[in-house]
Amino acid sequence: MHQPDVIDEEYHFEGRAIVSETDTKGIITFANRKFCEISGYDKDELIGKPHNIIRHPDMPKAAFAQMWREVQSGHNWHGFVKNLRKDGLYYWVETEISPILDTNETITGYIAARKPASRKNIEEAEILYKKMLENEK
After folding, report:
1. Does residue 111 lie within any of the structural domains?
2. What whole-number distance in Å separates Cα of residue 121 and Cα of residue 99?
């Protein structure tokens, strides 16, 4: 299967972070302009949709299961994610996801900030995720 080309993250990010917020089910409630630009979706195509609208098929389910365990327990999650753009290109990001808490310390949603992943981190993640995907078969 032919892999679509990666976008040039450094050019597209230009020092700005991708930021999004979701409800507790992972439905997008906020997407900043940079998220729209990098993903290729308009804001109205993202708001109200599951965040996995940009999930690349190379991403193992186990990676997201671990991420959900962390954030649902109130912890931050840090990792590397390969995302799929609307046009079929993909991009790698270093991601930090944090729970959003109300005044009673109840999780009401999640906020994610992403920046371009380094070449070294991408190479390491590709090896790890390939092994994880093989284990899912």
Report:
1. yes
2. 24
The parent domain of residue 100 ranges over 17-136
C-alpha dist (Å) from residue 68 to 64, 72, 80, 89, 110? 6, 6, 14, 25, 10
In tens, the pLDDT along 88-135 reads 999 999 999 999 999 999 999 999 999 989 999 999 999 999 999 999
Q: Which residues have CB under 8 Å from 42's CB, separation 6+?
A: 36
Can you give the pTM of this predicted structure?
A: 0.86
| Long-range CB contacts for residues 122-126, cutoff 8 Å, separation at least 24 | 122/80, 122/92, 124/80, 125/79, 125/80, 125/82, 125/92
Whether 1 is covered by a domain: the verdict is no
Specify the CATH number for the domain of residue 98.
3.30.450.20
Total domains, the chain: 1
